[in-house]
Design brief:
This protein has a domain of 178 residues: Rossmann fold (3-Layer(aba) Sandwich). The protein has a 5-stranded parallel β-sheet, with helices on both faces. The chain is α/β, with parallel strands linked by helices. The longest helix has 22 residues. The radius of gyration is 22 Å and the shape is elongated.
Length: 280
């Protein structure tokens, strides 16, 4: 049962997740309304002159100038192109090999349907017998969407507790690795893939990346922001050592009450690729 109420979450992790989520939305709004950015920076620079505070005039000009440089840098098409190449250019293509599970990373109501369609295609093409959804709030929705795509419930599993990409990998490893599932097909968008791939590999997974397109209604300025955010995420995860080999945690790291630990998945022989036809 994918019930986030059963999750064990450190308050600091939840606080950090909420903070980054709000900051992400603020920056996304800012990137989408450049006129408001200009007006805000003019207000910052001009306020000390309006209130006649001479000592704040120079710092205000420096602050507004610095913010303008940061904004123009982040929104620069040239830098966005370089960032896009950094994020996507080194992702290996899908090899077409079979795996033990398809892992779908949740990313909100706009992106999830695209990822579900890709995962369902992979399952129907007999690439793996199990689809594993990961993400707090996203996993139950992904499971529902998969069933709407005629994927049977016995071929769907997941964890509804992760709040970050690092936890996506950690919690997925805690559940799947003890079951002998080491080779996975990872489904996420192209900008998120490199960071996700390296993080999952750090927990001992052999990862076959399968890119899911970004939702068609994603605006150009939002795509630019995604490039900026994921570029920072890729570098920061490296500095934090999250790409180095790590131990698989116990499943108790996910759930507070051991009575709610997930049972072992059903015998995969019953849903192995050669037997999938009976579920179509």
């Amino acid at each position: 049962m994918l019930d986030s109420a059963l999750c064990q979450q450190a308050s600091s992790t939840r606080l950090w997740s909420m903070l980054t989520w709000r900051v992400t939305h603020v920056f996304s709004f800012v990137f989408s309304h450049p006129l408001l950015v200009v007006l805000a920076l003019v207000a910052i620079a001009g306020l000390p002159w309006i209130v006649r505070q001479a000592r704040w005039q120079k710092p205000a000009l420096m602050l507004s100038g610095s913010l303008l440089v940061i904004y123009l840098t982040a929104a620069s098409p040239i830098l966005m192109g370089l960032g896009n190449k950094l994020l996507v250019g080194f992702v290996p293509p899908d090899s077409g090999e079979k795996a033990a599970a398809i892992v779908v990373l949740g990313r909100g109501s706009e992106q999830n349907p695209m990822r579900v369609r890709e995962a369902a295609k992979l399952w129907n093409n007999q690439r793996a017998p199990l689809i594993f959804a990961s993400g707090r709030g996203d996993a139950p929705r992904i499971a529902d969407l998969l069933q709407q795509q005629q994927v049977p419930s016995e071929a769907i599993a997941g964890e509804p507790c992760s709040l970050t990409t690092d936890q996506n990998a950690e919690f997925t490893a805690a559940i799947l690795r003890p079951q002998g599932i080491d080779k996975i097909i990872l489904v996420t968008d192209p900008l998120h893939m490199m960071r996700s791939l390296l993080t999952f590999e750090s927990f001992g997974f052999e990862v076959i990346p399968h890119i899911s397109p970004v939702a068609e209604n994603t605006q150009r300025i939002q795509r630019q922001f995604l490039v900026f955010r994921e570029s920072l995420g890729l570098v920061s995860y490296g500095l934090l050592g999250r790409y180095s080999a790590r131990k698989v945690p116990p499943v108790s790291v996910i759930y507070a009450d051991s009575r709610h630990l997930p049972a072992q998945q059903p015998n995969r022989a019953s849903i192995e690729p050669e037997n999938i036809a009976g579920h179509l």
